[in-house]
Design brief:
Elements lengths: L1 H28 L4 H27 L5 H9 L5 H25 L15 H24 L4 H15 L8 H6 L14 H22 L7
Amino acid sequence: MTRALAAEFLGTFLLLATVVGSGIMGEALADGNAAIALLGNSVATGAALVVLILVFGPISGARFNPAVTLVMAARRKFVPGTAVAYVAVQVGGALVGVAVAHIMFELPVAQVGIKEWASVAQGFCEFVATFGLLATILGCRAARAESMPFAVALYITAAYWFTASASFANPAVALARSFTTTSAGIRPADAPMFIAAQVLGVLAAMVVFRWLLAGRDRT
């Protein structure tokens, strides 16, 4: 369990360092071209996800996401105490990842997000993005588990582009990104809406895929 929790912390830390760090780098190099900045951010995140899931998956399952942990707990893959511990290290790792990204780019470590993501449409995007992420995970677990690192990474890369919220799809990410003023940030006041939409997306995916995969999912 200690190794599993350490793996979840490290994986989530490296994921957020990638998300925020590549956002800073993309914005610095894109010369005001938002599409190029987003392209760099999304490709870096997708590439990192493949590597992180392959590295940490055998140790902890490579959840890196309290929403995924919630699903695993509901499916009785975790006892409640283990699920709480996973969520704690995921959130802690995410916060450390944001701070490390700030240090790498010589920015103030302690920041509070200022970017507004307050529209209902953006909240709905988080519902859709999280539903799709869980659909990817549950579908791959049932059919071809070895494809999951690549499927998850490809889905997140695509969701950066097809959602107006740029697809946080992760409560730890939403919380951690409220502590950066960079392009990856979100106002703390807007994060609860994102997290609520993500939880609803998780619940919807669980209901739908319990029906779709009835009799097939034995993982």
